[in-house]
Amino acid sequence: MRGLWAAALVTLVFLMFGPALAAEAEMPEERDWSHIGLFGTYDRAALQRGYRVYKDVCSACHSLKYIAFRNLMEIGFTEAEAKSLAAEYSYPDGPSEQTGEMFERNGLITDIFPAPYANDAEARIANNGALPPDLSLMVKAREYGPDYLYSLLVGYKDAPGDFDLAEGMNYNPYFAGNQIAMPQPLFEEMVEYGDGTAATIEQMAADVTTFLAWTSEPSLEPRHRLGLQVSIFLILLTVLFYFVKRRVWADVH
Questions:
Q1: What's the average pLDDT block by block, 10 residues per block, for the chain (253 residues)?
Q2: Alpha helices by DSSP H, 190-219
Q3: Domains of the chain (ranges plus CATH)?
């Protein structure tokens, strides 16, 4: 009797959790990112291409609420270029000193990137109930960081025949549950790079991942430089203390 109860319990657990276990997300592809490591730095060309991918593709649904146009000068854009990029957008301002009414003005270098939706309710309505997350800290917020985001972007494929894909969802083995509300965002040559780089899905995914790694941790390079300086200082201090110790204890036998 005890054996029958145990078998029934195992069957019940399988029926309840079997589909979830079967839909466990795959491990993301490990890539060699230039900014990872003790002395890592961001690839400036990749950052600027990644901004282009974000602007032309991702910004239609996802915000970057912690990044201002002036921050683009940190990744290689000139002040004039940053001002020009900001001026492509309009922002509400006012009230006017003459009329007392609100008005629209061109973006300034000090403005943060504009949000695609006025509020969360509008965002959900436009995306079948799903709320597109802000991408400012996305790479830091997800386990496996840039590897996860890159794998997710290149991982869209047709669902296996035995997979129960919910209506309005898309199959992606790297997402929890293997189905995601966001449609495939990247397609071949959908972005035109100014430096002539071929805009393959893999290239665009790597570039925008690098850009979002920077938005998640723009202080990475200064922190690495400071760490290197401190390490050199500590090594020199250790050597100095060693010779001082030898000098002080030279006559002690």
A1: 43 42 80 92 97 97 96 96 96 88 93 95 93 96 96 96 93 96 96 96 98 94 76 84 80 66
A2: 201-216
A3: 25-42+138-242 (1.10.760.10)
